[in-house]
Amino acid sequence: MNTPSPALPAGARNLSEAVSALASRLPEPLAPLAAIAYNLRWGWTPGGSDLFESLSPHRWELSSHNPVRMLLELSAPTLERAAGDEQLLQRAHEIQRAIDEDLQRPPADAPSTAYFCAEFGVHRSVPVYSGGLGALAGDHLKEASDRALPLVAVGLMYNQGYFRQRLDASGWQHEYWVPTDPPLLPAALEHDEEGRPVTVTVPIDGEPVVAQIWRVQVGRVPLFLLDTERPDNSRMARWICSQLYVGDPETRLAQYALLGIGGVRALRAMGIEPDTVHLNEGHAAFATLERARPAIEGGSSLDDALAQAREGTVFTTHTPVPAGNDAYPGQLVCDVLGGFAQEAGVDAWRIVELGRTQQYDFDEPFGVTQFALRTSRAANGVARRHGEIAREMWHALWADRDVHDVPIGHITNGVHLPSWVGRAMARLFDGHLGPQWVQGAADPRTWEAIDAIPDEELWAARNEQRAVLVDFVRDRSTADRLQRGESRDYVESAARAFDPDVLTIGFARRIATYKRLDLLVKNAERAIRLLDGDRPVQLLIAGKAHPRDDAGKALVQGLFAQRDRVGRVGERVVFLHDYDLAVGARLVRGCDVWVNVPRPPMEASGTSGMKSAVNGGLQLSVLDGWWPEAYDEHRPNGWALSGETDSDHGAQDYRHADDLYRTLEEEVVPTFYSGQDGGPPHAWLAMVKASIRSIAPRFTAARMLDDYVGRMYRPGGE
Description:
718 residues; alpha/beta; Rossmann fold; ten-stranded mixed β-sheet; 29 helices; 44% helix
């Protein structure tokens, strides 16, 4: 790859111009804020968020923590006051110096890689993500920056992002979309030397679609987002970059063509030729087609050219459910890719065949996962069990091999610790593990000192983070209920009763039927006894159902139907609407127990439980996804429900609900409240220490990136 110099990343001229334009609108002493605002490294630099919030806490919230927008909207008197605040200016210079020093480091010795994904959850201020896949991609980029890996990322600039969620008084979900407005984001439009936007053209569904390129700087890693919102495109072409995971199949397939084919063309337009392309899920599978095109134009057959491109392509699958893997009628694929096929001189139906499990079964649709598996050198699932499931799912692609020899491995997900560990726990780690604990996070020896932390200090840190969460819940739940037009008594109930000293349980997931939110209220009487007992429990729930998933919406509505059973339901159970990265961070930092009860084996990995664990939360989870690798029954670090598969879903749900309530009643609640005379609960904290020590080094993004570089990105990897 034509890698940038440490001091001047490729395309940094455009970023510098954006910084200069913003700085020109600020008083001169505040100029460093403009440079900081345009590099999301501030988001995981200690004090970065506080710096911007201190300018105007109210405006900070209104801007969705977008520093570029906030700086543009602040009044002149506010800016003048900030310009005279010597402490603020000193903090700004310190943060700018830390970011500059980070950018000056030499790149690591690793293959240059382009990471393609349909969504990136790098920060709430860049709303091009929906959930777990995006959060993982964001953590991947931030960890790559911390490790100075020569990596760039490619995605799409969705001009309406993912939907926003509003619940009515019955609990039914309604969706609405908000314009992203890219010029107000921490993003710079790429221009050529003559000042014209850098564009690429991709033939999609009979139209030459033109895309411009936005650059978002994630520490050292540039994230390039393609955008079709241009006057030279038709309304249909502009709609391609409208919404993330748009429901219309033809538009969705057009997005995948733009991401894969257009993404490779965009990198070439900027002089970037990576050693390896990492397809994070099948949405970007068509990138291999574009990488093969030069060889086809040079006279190679499609199969030979793809074989060559295959050597530089790796693929991560995240979906353990056959129905969850996108598939499209062959004729639709031919329509969308017909222009590309004609341009490259290949038969579009041959492309379709490569996306079928049985290539020559005309009735079988085209699957992006099958195409990605066939055109990648190496493939992996995202947890050990998911790797096993993936080998079984796709065995037919390698029917001549034993299922154990199907070439799909696994690299278990991990999380970027600086992004998710709360302040109180971070201070605790700084004091007892040493200031380099983040850099040594993947080394088990870093965490050996956990056992020596005094229980009183650990309990104080946990209490502090729970109290911060409870303050947020009191305010947010009141606002949510007011907006829904609830009765005044119900509006005030959570603010009145939510308690920073009460056992707090979190359930925050994408709301889909297989996630089984309804298990929490399967036995309403037992649930009410837990909420209203002498040793009470309070429950926080968050998540979005897909706009077309009425069954998922009905799960939330069913939960709301329980609120009138007794008053304590309204006081002790809160559904936080419009779940996003910021709400997720508050929940994983403050909750004492993280509940995860998907129907096995439908959980690929999950990462929210990992985030909770490094904050001192304990897991109560079905043995699916990542939890079978983490759970330790010999030195208890959480609780496990059976991960067996069962075709009788009703019977399985009954067993799991009974086990869930029993575990809460007999183990979780008594252990949490086992402290004597107001002291810390030593048995509970012993589990917390075992959880942090066993989970933190194994499920950090640092270990994950080690695995990807060593086993996937380097030639000869899996």
